[in-house]
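Record type: monomer structure entry
Structure origin: computed from sequence
Chain ID: A
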Amino acid sequence: MTQIPSGATRPTDRPAHTWSIGETPWQQIPPVGPPRARVIIDNDFAGDPDDLYQLVHHLLSPSVDIRLVVASHLRADDPFDPSGRSAQNAEAVVRDVFSRMGLTSAEVIVAGSDEPLQDRSTPQHAAAVDAIIAEALRDDVSSPLFYVAGGGLTDIASAYLTEPRIADRLTLVWIGGAEHEGLAVPPPDPMPIEYNLLIDPVAGQVVFNDSTMPLWQVPRDVYRQCLVSDAELRVRVAAAGPLGRYLYDEVASVCAMVAPHLGGASETYALGDSPLVLLTALQSVFEPDPSSSRYVQRPTPALGDDGAYSDVAGSRPMRVYTWVDTRLMFEDMYLKLAEFERWQGGVS
């Protein structure tokens, strides 16, 4: 599990430099223009540390304006954090990451609900829900809004149930859901319900079955493509200063924890939340789109209680990604980490 910060685990050395969202002081050649899109990040930061890589990578990407970081919950019995306060712990993790980066924009961090939806008509109230609605309904900006979710869908579903008008004001990019028949097959011995959907199946039903919001899905077969080797992480991440070593150690601790139960060590790890950056911050210059990745467009299926898909005639179209450009995604992350460390470490 991601280490929940405490007095004993918080870094004692503060970064040499501070900055705010909208600034890129680590770039010797500054961005040529303002961000092209707004992004709300939603992830279960007390769980699998792949979300830490996604968070840092997004924060270092000047083409997007990070409007909110929603700290969301895990399922109650999740071994990563069975505390019952995983959203609150996730918020503490995000604040710790901001501190490690010297990022002063803590006002964008909001906690989601610690509880899943109980039914398809009643939202869970949380500070994040109000903040999501306020950002989605802004009428003083014209840039597109992407809601990128790397865990469960409780908070965006609650926001929709509270104010359905947000469905026309954003695009939801979600890491989660099982394989689609005809596109991919499940992995060996899969979970009965895919991990992220299992966090809140009812919220998934609200989004898929009941809402009208545009949806780009990165299902399990695709996020499992996002493998990096331990050698990559040692050489390209752990060597990138204190921030990089922190990111590396979080993954290494999970690998050490699970190795005895999985027959030994593995040389790879899935950074499965990273497509959230690829599909929003790394779009093409002309005719903006995640043009280096592949998807199919199909009618949005309904989700059953068991997580299975069923066809719905005439439903709204959705994107189902079938392949993501891991070269662009990870090389961009490695280079941004190195560039950021050169600045934070005082190397000109």
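Annotation 1: The two ends are 36 Å apart (CA to CA).
Annotation 2: The first strand starts at residue 37 and ends at 43.
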